[in-house]
Amino acid sequence: MKLILLAACVAMASAWIPGQRQDCNKVDADGGSILLPHERYCQLYYSCDVRGNQTPLWCPQGMLFAYGPGIATCVMQDGITTLSCPNWQCQTIQDIGRRYPDTCCGKYWECTAINTFSQKECSNGFSYDVNQDRCQQGARCEKNDFCYDDIVPSNNRECHNSPSPSGDPCLYRSEGWEQDRQCPVGTAYDSTTCACTQLSTACSASGLSVELLLKNKEPSAQCQASGKMGWDQSLPVFSDKLQRNVDHYFYRTPSGFTVNGREGIFSPQGNVVPFIYDYFYNDNTLYSPLAIVMMVRFDQSQLNTVYNLLENRWTTDQSNQHCPPTLIFSARYEGVQFGDRSWEFTISAVGENSVQSTATVKVTGGGQDYYRIVFTFGVTSPTTQGIAGSVTNYGASGQIASGQQNRFQSDNRNLGSALRPTKCGFAIGRGLSGRISEFSVHEGCSNFNALGGQGSGGGFGK
Predict the structure, then answer these.
(1) What class, spelled out in words, does domain 217-451 have in CATH?
(2) Using DSSP, how many helices (H) and how many strands (E) does the chain show?
(3) What pLDDT sits at residue 192?
């Protein structure tokens, strides 16, 4: 009897316990982070709205939800990501054999290899008991409403979602949210199931197919832009690699930002801190080699004021916990020196290995001068992939390099092969009183010299 009791105690002690359910955060939802993992079932996930409401949805059959830096989507179970099922352990050899509940009582999931889950089925008449960690008759099982075996398409089913009025199958709408919402990458909305349960390789956050997304990241000796900003009312973004516009969705502050066809103009007004926000870079991993180019002019400057020119976070509010920035461009005004205005530019980046690297440079110029910032991330030594770049004074016209051209002085830290992604896009020009006339991202830039001024110190060519 003692042995039986001991075995029962061990089984209960080792029973799997669901994770903590995450709350929807309005700040995170505004910034584009609207998907959260389910605390119990990896087939399910939550979709958040700006009011904090959670709507449970499910992945297409055979797929599980992966969540973490750089990913929030449904994936096949083939071990390609370490971020599948954050509430299910399957990261070490010791985890192999662990079991987890399915939304259907007669099934369960098992960790069959590192980062790989396989669906198992109980014998006829048996159900999986999560407390006993096995299939048995009369098992205590809480069948979920989203059991695939019980889903019957019906127009009478209560549904709080609807297809996008645009007709785009990759988008849908929810009650309480007046804008289109993106299905998880690789899935399309299905009205009969009230969820994004149709597999579709054409659906991505950018409107590009998987093949085009990869092509846009391919190496380019000409350093072609994967995204180059246009300054008209729609803020188009053009890919030199694809020779077409790429879908970028922008937020712009209700006042303080205008365009004139040649540049974006940022003018702080009252309590409004102007900026534009590009959702495209939410969970978008940027790999080495990479370059980002920005041309900026400062219309107003106050001594020692720091201007955030670029950062991958929605807000500076501490409640935006999903997005500690991993890429920042900033400029600090140091006052007048020898008749010219002195600026200190700083670039900071965090790598996939969580190492942070910083570089600075000082440049002087007149009150109406434009400064061209070239940021690069790539091989800086035989064992280091780090950040570098330069800043050049382009004069009042912004057309010709007419002043100083100085290179960033870096701490030469190794960041690994990619920048650490966040669940936020790019905030551009936050708080700037001035103009941005060039902003371009060059993924796969295998020849930084093609940008001008970056390689051996030669002159810029715009």
Answers:
(1) mainly beta
(2) 3, 33
(3) 77
Residue with tokens 């051209």: 405
- Rounded distance, CA 380 to CA 293, Å? 18
- Which range among 186-190, 291-295, 430-434 has the greatest average pLDDT? 291-295
Alpha-carbon Rg for the chain, nearest whole angstrom, is: 26
- pLDDT higher for 338 or 216? 216
The sign one gets for the Cα dihedral 356, 213, 330, 378 is positive
CATH 2.60.120.200 maps onto the chain at 217-451
Task: Tell which wins on pLDDT, 26 or 66.
Answer: 66
Q: Label residue 14 by pLDDT band (50, 70, 90).
A: low
Please answer whether residues 272 and 304 qualify as being in contact, where contact means their C-beta atoms are separated by less than 8 angstroms: no
Cα–Cα distance, 282 to 259 (Å, whole number)? 24
Helix (H, G, I), strand (E, B) or coil at 417: coil
Distance CA 253, CA 404 (A): 33
Average pLDDT rounded to a whole number, residues 294-321 = 89
Pair of tokens at residue 438: 């060039």
394 and 250 in contact (C-beta within 8 Å)?
no
DSSP code at position 214:
H
Q: How far apart are CA 235 and CA 246, in angstroms?
A: 11
User: What is the C-alpha to C-alpha distance for residues 358 and 338, in angstroms, rounded to an integer?
Assistant: 28
Question: In angstroms, what CA-CA distances link 34 with 40, 107, 318, 401?
Answer: 18, 29, 18, 43
Residues 6+ apart with CB under 8 A from 455: 447, 448, 449
Tens digit of pLDDT for each residue in 39-48?
999 999 998 8
Q: Is the pLDDT of residue 264 over 90?
A: yes
pTM of the model: 0.80
Taking the C-alpha atoms of residue 26 and residue 427, their distance in angstroms, rounded to an integer, is: 17
β-pair partners for 286: none
